[in-house]
Design goal:
By secondary structure, this protein is of the alpha+beta class. It has one domain: Sufe protein. Chain: A, CATH 3.90.1010.10. The protein contains five helices and four strands. It has a four-stranded mixed β-sheet with strand order 3-2-1-4, with helices on one face. Helix 1 packs across helix 2, helix 2 runs parallel beside helix 5 and helix 3 packs antiparallel against helix 5. The model has no long low-confidence stretch (mean pLDDT 92).
């Protein structure tokens, strides 16, 4: 196994065991629920957006290591970002995990999300990795519809 692949696996396991920004947010300005019926992952994303900036983002839920670590890493990437930046990061992440060309992310964000670059080789796991991101988009744009990966 290559050193880089090992590092990425360790990062996923670290965020799974010690998720960042995990737990309910009582002062959320919006939230959304997501579900992956294929494997049972469930996530709730909480956002506190003030003046177009994501001041805080948290999540809670249950899921596999990829789902949980993706949500954890997402929260660390999005804090302090403007809504437009978050939309662009979502688009870049989605392209990254689905293998679509044209990923446009700043160097720091690309580095932080590189962990999920290999997911595109496992289509069933793309849904695990992207569940929190789709749910975040629903919360960000006040969609009342529950998010499902199906």
């Amino acid at each position: 196994m290559s050193d880089m692949r090992e590092l990425y696996q360790q990062l996923i396991m670290d965020h799974n065991r010690n998720p960042r920004n995990f737990g309910r947010m009582d002062d959320a300005t919006s939230h959304a629920n997501g579900h992956n019926p294929l494997c049972g992952d469930r996530v709730t994303i909480y956002l506190n957006v003030q003046d177009g900036i994501i001041k805080d983002v948290r999540f809670e839920g249950v899921g596999c290591a990829i789902s949980k670590s993706s949500a954890s890493i997402m929260t660390t990437v999005l804090k302090g970002k403007r809504i437009e930046e978050a939309d662009g990061i979502f688009d870049g992440f989605h392209k990254l995990v689905t293998g679509v060309a044209g990923v446009e992310l700043d160097e720091e964000t690309a580095e932080r999300l590189a962990t999920f670059n290999g997911i595109k080789k496992f289509p069933a796991r793309v849904k695990c990795a992207s569940l929190a991101w789709h749910t975040m988009e629903a919360a960000l744009h006040a969609s009342d519809s529950p998010v499902s990966t199906e």
